[in-house]
């Protein structure tokens, strides 16, 4: 059998071609066009619905678009639907349906618009490794990209809102650990989207959405949910379930321990902390043993590497060490949705 290692490396190295092609089609709203014209369209029919600079370029534009569509179809993003005459036609499949924006609150598109803004950081990785500094801090003069560009903050909030809606919807299908709580404190709960979804299913539970005062003043007003401003490194409100969704991965071990210590001090007797974060896989004997969720978790870790100071995803053992250092006795992974693990931590 021919050694495919060379071609595999080429595919990895040129992965940027695929993500850039996909971003181009998203900017042109091709998924939305296909969604309205099921089951399929030809590149010419798609271009007919685009604001071309000149209709005289229709054939040239369709040729370029068709080449992008063909490549993405090969990578499983779109469905090839050739006509009986062999005409190139494309439709949506299960993957590209996540790129539809109209009427889709869980669209992946905001995420695609956010991550390319970090590309300049990757060029600094060699120097960052040699100097022992975080590439994100090096790229932005010791500051987070969020501190420098308010527009990125807005895009990021949109990204996290879509991720939250999907993750919490799926979590409530496989995890029932919220239903018996009396008071859930969402620590670092941002605009309250997680609690809004939880309380819709469990209306008898009281929710406290806890974040910085400047954040919660813009939070949703939801029946049964109180928005409380404060600093999780100082103290957190009292409750019998503390929710930390995509919070601990923002901080180094020392600060993550402090957050968990404050949660433990405010935890009612018999209560628990629920962490939702991507858990990195332990080392496998063969790369084929890693699941798609494992590989996504590793990519999330690289995203953390480029965004903030000491931000990182953790393995189960690393999270366990942090939890034990904060005074907890045990933890248990209860479920996994996409690449997010739902972990209960007990005093």
TrEMBL record:
Lineage of producing organism: Eukaryota, Viridiplantae, Streptophyta, Embryophyta, Tracheophyta
Protein's UniProt name: Caffeyl alcohol/5-hydroxyconiferyl alcohol 3/5-O-methyltransferase-like 1
Location of the O-methyltransferase C-terminal domain: 122-329
InterPro entries on file: COMT-like, COMT_C, COMT_dimerisation, SAM-dependent_MTases_sf, WH-like_DNA-bd_sf, WH_DNA-bd_sf
Molecular-function GO terms, alphabetical: O-methyltransferase activity; protein dimerization activity
GO-annotated biological processes: methylation
Record keywords: Methyltransferase, S-adenosyl-L-methionine, Transferase
Pfam families, alphabetized: Dimerisation, Methyltransf_2
Active site, UniProt feature: 249 (proton acceptor)
Organism: Selaginella moellendorffii (Spikemoss)
Domain O-methyltransferase dimerisation: 14-101
